[in-house]
Design a protein that fits this description.
This protein is an alpha+beta fold. The protein is built from 3 helices and 14 strands. Strands 3-4-14-5 form a 4-stranded antiparallel β-sheet. Strand 3 and strand 4 form a beta hairpin. The protein is globular, with a radius of gyration of 17 Å.
Length: 225
C-alpha cells in the first residue's frame, strides 16, 4: 500500500494499476479549486491549490512545460514538444538552431496544464502575473497542517499557500520541503529551450522569477480566465 502527498492509498501491483486507482478516486472525490481574490492591481484571481492537488497544502502534479499529464521521467527524450532533444523542438520556438520555428511565445490552451486538467475557468499564469504576485504580496514562510511553504498574502489580506513541493528532474524528486517552482505560460523568447517560472527557496527566504529548461517537471498554480 502506498500513501502519496495527496493522501491517496493504493495497492501497487503495477504503475498502470496505481494510476487507474488514483484517477478514479480523484474523479469521484476531488473537490474543485476555489478562486482567491488577493486584491491585486490587475484583478487576477489565483487558485487556492496546485493543479492535481485535492487540498490547498497538497503538492499536486508535476508537468514539463507545455505538457498536460504527469509522467515518470522528465528528460528531453520524453518531452512531447520535441523530437527527443532540446535542439529538435516541434512547437514554441523562434530559433532555427533549436528545431521547427513557429515564433509562439505563450502556450496554447491545448498545451496549458491548468486549462486541460481543471477546466475552462482556469489557465496557467503569465510571467507578468507571477511577477505581480511576487512584488505586490507579502511572503511568509509557514507550516500548514505539517506542510512547509510560503503563505502569500495580497493587499486585501486574503492569502494562498504555496507548498514546498520541490521539482522533478529525470526520475528524481528534489528539494521537497525547502523549495518549489511553478511554471508560467510564457516562453523565454531569447532562449526558446527555456520557459519562465516562479520559484522560492526557504534557505534564504528568497522568491523569484527565472527560467528553466522546458523538460523539467515543475508545479502549476492556475489563475482564473
Amino acid at each position: 500500500v502506498k500513501i502519496d502527498s495527496n493522501g491517496y492509498s493504493s495497492i501497487m501491483s503495477g504503475r498502470d494499476c496505481a494510476r487507474t486507482v488514483r484517477a478514479v478516486v480523484k474523479a469521484v472525490s476531488a473537490p474543485k479549486a476555489k478562486k482567491v481574490d488577493l486584491g491585486l492591481p490587475s484583478g487576477t484571481m489565483w487558485a487556492d491549490r496546485n493543479v492535481g492537488a485535492d487540498f490547498p497544502e497538497a503538492y499536486g502534479d508535476y508537468f514539463a512545460w507545455g505538457e498536460t499529464e504527469p509522467k515518470d521521467n522528465y528528460v528531453w527524450d520524453t518531452y512531447k514538444l520535441s523530437s527527443g532533444s532540446k535542439t529538435s523542438l516541434t512547437k514554441y520556438n523562434n530559433d532555427n538552431n533549436n528545431g521547427l520555428v513557429d515564433n509562439k511565445t505563450v502556450l496554447d490552451l491545448e498545451n496549458d496544464a491548468a486549462y486541460v486538467n481543471m477546466g475552462s475557468e482556469w489557465r496557467m499564469p503569465t510571467k507578468e502575473e507571477v511577477e505581480e504576485l511576487q512584488s505586490k504580496c507579502t511572503w511568509e514562510w509557514s507550516n500548514q497542517i505539517g506542510m512547509e511553504g510560503f503563505k502569500v498574502t495580497g493587499p486585501n489580506g486574503n492569502s494562498i499557500f504555496l507548498p514546498a513541493a520541490g521539482a522533478r528532474m529525470d526520475i528524481r524528486l528534489l528539494h521537497v520541503g525547502s523549495s518549489a517552482f511553478f511554471w508560467t505560460s510564457s516562453l523565454n523568447a531569447d532562449y526558446s529551450q527555456n520557459a519562465w517560472f516562479l520559484g522560492f527557496n526557504s534557505n534564504n527566504s528568497d522568491y523569484f522569477v527565472s527560467n528553466f529548461e522546458r523538460d523539467y517537471g515543475l508545479l502549476v498554480r492556475a489563475v482564473a480566465r
